Amino acid sequence: MKFYYTIIIAVLCIAAFILQNIYPSITDEFLLNSSLVLERPWTIVTSMFLHGSLEHLFFNMFALILFGIILENIIGGRKFLIVYFVSGIFASLGALIYTASLGASGAIFGILGCLALLRPRATIYVYFIPMPMMAAVVVWILIDLFGLFIPSDIANMAHIVGLIIGLIFGFFLRKQYGEPFKKRKQKILTDEEIDDWERKYFGI
What we know:
Shape: elongated
CATH superfamily: Rhomboid-like
Order of helices and strands: HHEHHHEHEEHHH
Oligomer: single chain
């Protein structure tokens, strides 16, 4: 059985959510509070493991496991961890425009952005509509840009920043791990095949 860092991160998030419900003070201590970030800089990372509801946890873990395993299979565990945590940290910095935030979605959007450049033609479903990964990125960015101006209780800026960081990683990784561009091979006819073709169609 292959070892996946994706699964470990998901287990840690689930464990953290259980602890949040047993000890509610954990949420207040480790979420990202903009006014306290200089006093508690570690919350830039710890907030990535916390979630506000079971629904929030479920959808984030579903996306993490589904897309995280795919990316980890492509680029390997160590590079996956770098993409995940760097995207998540920058997403947390982007979320400082909000009073408080928590969740793994910024890091997950980093995974999606990276995959979009490594597997741009892979088909995924966005709101039950099938589309290529690269088209999905455009849709996600538009949705989050729209969400910046309409209160939605979602840290849209964290999504946007995480996605951009993921795209940057994908740009640098695509030469080594990108989807190969398949050129249509031209068939070269042999002299015998040309002679057969001339006899068949021209009677030569």
